[in-house]
């Protein structure tokens, strides 16, 4: 039955049953009235929107005292298993006279309506749902319940009170939770609120779109499907690209395509690409996205465009030098644990500053971690020029040991050579001096921490071998500090 612009009145008894090819009762720009003591039954009907009743263009249902309604086994392909109501205009413009179900005597509160609504086994889009409306906020303006508007909204079409005449029953359950689960509306708002509407996005990497549509009852609107006019969205993720390298922010406009317009702008902050990736266009589209740097080397530096991450062998440094991304062997970086049997690669899922913070010592930074931080300077008594904290005090014992071992002993050695005219190319001193030169020209056995001794020798004597070697090395180089 289709009604347009003219009122319809039902009296005594009315039944709509087994309408399988369209909604049983469709009303547009009008009202459908049920007189006192009317019994209305809508059973096993099916339609696109509203299996039993569909109300368009602010049409509404008017009921009277002692009316009874049964909605059972109705199905809707989209929304409103039993009742679907579509209205225009913003909810702020509506009054209690705009509720989709109204009582003939407007002075009577819902709990005194003396009516019975029974909903049983109604579904929409294969989900349990009895009522779908553009908004139920006008119905919350009906007096007789809590002063708080949110609590009123939770009680709309759940107007059941003990010793009251109004009955609203859903699948033989009169509880508020059963009622709320059967009612859906258009999107009324989005979560989070405006203060949190900022997402961080790496150009080209799918980002989680943390948007939750809420209905009039402030619960998750499960009937909503998120679409995007520009880029494919899956699992609530979105792809956003900057148009030039100077873009640091962007904007996503979110709007609910429905009768009641709800919209907001989501601020996008573009993150820097992780080390090893650069921001450039691809062959797929002209927009910029984080793409692997071409300067890769097997076993040392590798990159993956799908995961947007790069890996660097521990003991190497990566950073910007003269405006370019470079990497190299880093003696001053934190080294491997010598108990490791295999090389360790670092996943570069961080900024360059964070990389320096994690892999340079607490006293150094800069290119190859060789720049001492403020109030630090290279130690002249350490062959790796380790950065140490500068102090304004003098340690007499330390200064004395340094002068004796690193100044006096070499000086005595040179004076003895000069006074006694010791031949350096022949005689007894030739062998030790040649060995000293050989040891001085050989790199450290551990390659500055890159090569693990145990991985080479795999024996308990590896540490002893290292100490013997370094002891000989230090003695011939007159290094005793």
Q: Give the uncertain stretches in residue-range form.
A: 224-233, 448-459
| Large-scale geometry | rod-shaped
Counting structural domains, the number is: 4
Could you tell me how far the N terminus lies from the C terminus, measured between alpha carbons in angstroms? 102 Å
Strand content: 25-35%
Number-wise, the strands total: 37
Mean pLDDT: 77
Read across the widest sheet, the strand sequence of neighbours is: 1-4-8-12-17-19
**What is the helical fraction, as a range of percent?**
10-25%
- Which structural class is indicated by helix and strand composition? alpha/beta
Kindly provide the radius of gyration, computed on alpha-carbon positions and rounded to a whole number of angstroms.
40 Å
């Amino acid at each position: 039955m289709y009604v347009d612009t003219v009122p319809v009145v039902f009296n005594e008894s009315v039944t709509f049953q087994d309408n399988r090819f369209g909604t049983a009762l469709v009303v547009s720009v009008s009202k459908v009235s049920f007189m006192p003591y009317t019994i209305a039954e809508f059973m096993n009907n099916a339609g696109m929107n509203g299996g039993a009743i569909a109300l368009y263009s602010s049409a509404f249902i008017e009921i009277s005292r002692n009316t009874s309604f049964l909605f059972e086994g109705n199905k809707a392909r989209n929304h409103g298993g039993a009742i679907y109501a579509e209205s225009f205009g913003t909810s702020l413009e509506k009054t209690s006279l705009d509720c989709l179900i109204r009582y003939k005597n407007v002075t009577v509160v819902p709990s005194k309506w003396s009516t019975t609504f029974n909903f049983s086994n109604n579904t929409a889009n294969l989900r349990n749902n009895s009522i779908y409306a553009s908004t139920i906020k006008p119905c919350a303006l009906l007096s007789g319940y809590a002063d708080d508007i949110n609590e009123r909204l939770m009680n709309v079409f759940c107007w059941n009170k003990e010793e009251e005449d109004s009955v609203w029953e859903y699948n033989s359950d009169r509880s508020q939770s059963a009622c709320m689960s059967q009612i859906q509306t258009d999107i009324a708002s989005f979560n989070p609120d405006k203060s949190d509407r900022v997402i961080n996005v790496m150009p080209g990497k799918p980002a989680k779109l943390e948007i939750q549509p809420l209905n009039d009852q402030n619960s998750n609107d499960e009937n909503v499907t998120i679409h995007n006019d520009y880029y494919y969205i899956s699992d609530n993720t979105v792809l956003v690209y900057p148009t030039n390298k100077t873009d640091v922010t962007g904007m996503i406009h979110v709007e609910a395509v429905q009768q009641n317009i709800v919209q907001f702008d989501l601020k996008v902050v573009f993150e820097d690409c992780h080390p090893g990736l650069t921001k450039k266009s691809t062959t797929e589209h002209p927009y910029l996205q984080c793409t692997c740097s071409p300067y890769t080397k097997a076993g040392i530096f590798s990159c993956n465009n799908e995961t947007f991450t790069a890996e660097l062998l521990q003991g190497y440094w990566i950073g910007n030098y003269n405006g370019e991304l470079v990497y190299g062997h880093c003696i001053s970086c934190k080294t491997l644990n010598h108990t490791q049997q295999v090389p360790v690669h670092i996943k570069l899922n961080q900024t360059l500053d964070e990389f320096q913070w994690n892999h340079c010592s607490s006293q150094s930074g800069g290119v190859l971690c060789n720049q001492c931080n403020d109030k630090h300077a290279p130690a002249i008594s350490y062959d790796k020029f380790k950065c140490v904290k500068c102090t304004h005090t003098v340690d007499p014992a330390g200064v004395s040991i340094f002068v004796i071992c690193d100044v006096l002993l070499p000086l005595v050695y040179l004076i003895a050579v000069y006074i006694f005219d010791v031949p350096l190319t022949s005689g007894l001193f030739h062998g030790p001096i040649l060995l000293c030169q050989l040891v001085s020209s050989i790199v450290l056995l551990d390659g500055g921490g890159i090569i693990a001794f145990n991985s080479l020798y795999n024996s308990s004597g590896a540490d002893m071998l290292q100490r013997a070697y370094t002891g000989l090395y230090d003695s011939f180089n007159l290094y005793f500090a």
